[in-house]
Amino acid sequence: MPSHFIALLFLASLAQAPRREESRYHQTIERVLTLLPKRPAQVVIVDPNQAGAEIRGTLLRMEAFIAKGGRVVYLTSHSGALQGALKGWSLHEHILASIIWHEMAHIDGADELEAQRREEALWIRYVMDERVDPGDGMRYLSGLKSRRSRDKNVQQGDAVLTLKGPLITAAIAVIEPTAPLTKR
Question: What is the pTM of this model?
Fold first, then answer.
């Protein structure tokens, strides 16, 4: 009889639902990843407020980033695109997908200018396929294209900012895409 009780406790522990917040992030990111031509190896959402003081200020100015040499796309929990996507707003989901695509370009070795071009190309596809409202899509594309004129410091060959400091303590969700990629 005691072994049945232990087995029942074990099964009950497996059946417990994931934390509501974690589930929300996972569902949203899985939905966003279906908008990409290919998936990243992993997406980690970090809370800048939980990060060490040496990198907190930098993270608060970012929506997404990668660690040099890594295969993980990091999203910051305060990101406007992520917050809108969490609310189910389609435009924000597409924006977040294009941001992830930008970071994946860096993972593939692209410098900042090339990563911006790839992000813009994906966004143009969203507009042309009418996956986003044409007016909103063209306004956002205009903003994407104006980055190079606004940021005179970005040069051919520039890549990502190198962060020094531990990130694992700031992780609030780790998403390893499991669903097969569907052709879009």
Answer: 0.78
